[in-house]
Write a structure and sequence with these properties.
This protein is of the alpha/beta class. It has seven helices and six strands; from the N terminus they run E-H-E-H-H-E-H-H-E-H-E-E-H. It has helices at about 15-25, 40, 65-70, 90-95, 100-105, 130-140, 170-180, and strands at about 1-5, 30-35, 75-80, 115-120, 145, 155. Strands 1, 2, 3, 4, 5 and 6 form a six-stranded parallel β-sheet that branches. Helix 1 crosses helix 7. The longest helix is centred in the C-terminal third of the chain and has 13 residues, at about 130-140.
Length: about 180
């Protein structure tokens, strides 16, 4: 099994990474993980050049091929909440998925295999994740990933009051999500 993790956090040892590590611990030992950090990759957003209206894929040559290679079984979108939204670099990556929709709509080309999706959101402040969830659901749909908000969503949304390590519901959410993906 191969798991692609789209990490939207700028903090290498922050709350989002803490949860990612806990998720990774629960997968079988032979699971291959590829972590794609949005802040390190510096992926430019879609600029509506319309290349994908007439050609397969995207005109930009960058590390987005890790996603478009489509050789993973599970995709994890993980992000802290910034103003109730995914981080801007992660959102830039998601805008680049527009080529998938355009290829299907204009070229009638769709070749992404079925996979499973998992969403991890972390935040303090208002703790309202609705906008972030909506965008993640669109990304999962474009990537042909099954995602169920009731089973595949992990969150710790009061980190300004409770440390993520002390969030009593977190481990239960992680176990539910990973076991659901593994069909345990």
């Amino acid at each position: 099994m191969k798991v692609l993790i789209l990490n939207g956090s700028p903090n290498k040892n922050g709350d989002t990474k803490y949860i990612i590590n806990k998720v990774m611990e629960r997968f079988p030992k032979d699971t291959e993980f590829v972590e794609f950090n949005a802040f390190e990759e510096n992926i430019e957003p879609c600029n509506d050049c319309r290349y994908c209206w007439k050609n397969k894929g995207c005109c930009r040559n960058d590390r987005m091929e890790i996603i478009s290679k489509d050789d993973y079984d599970v995709i994890v979108i993980a992000s802290p909440l910034y103003m109730e939204f995914l981080t801007p670099p992660l959102f830039s990556i998601i805008t680049r998925l527009n080529y998938i929709w355009s290829n299907e709509f204009f070229l009638k080309f769709k070749d992404l295999r079925k996979k499973k999706g998992m969403l991890i959101l972390v935040g303090g402040g208002t703790g309202v994740p609705d906008h972030a969830i909506s965008i993640a659901e669109i990304a999962f749909r474009f990537l042909n990933a099954d995602f169920n908000i009731k089973t595949d969503y992990i969150h710790s949304l009061k980190t300004n009051f409770t440390k993520v390590e002390d969030d009593k519901e977190l481990i239960e959410q992680i176990d539910r999500a990973v076991n659901g993906i593994l069909n345990v």
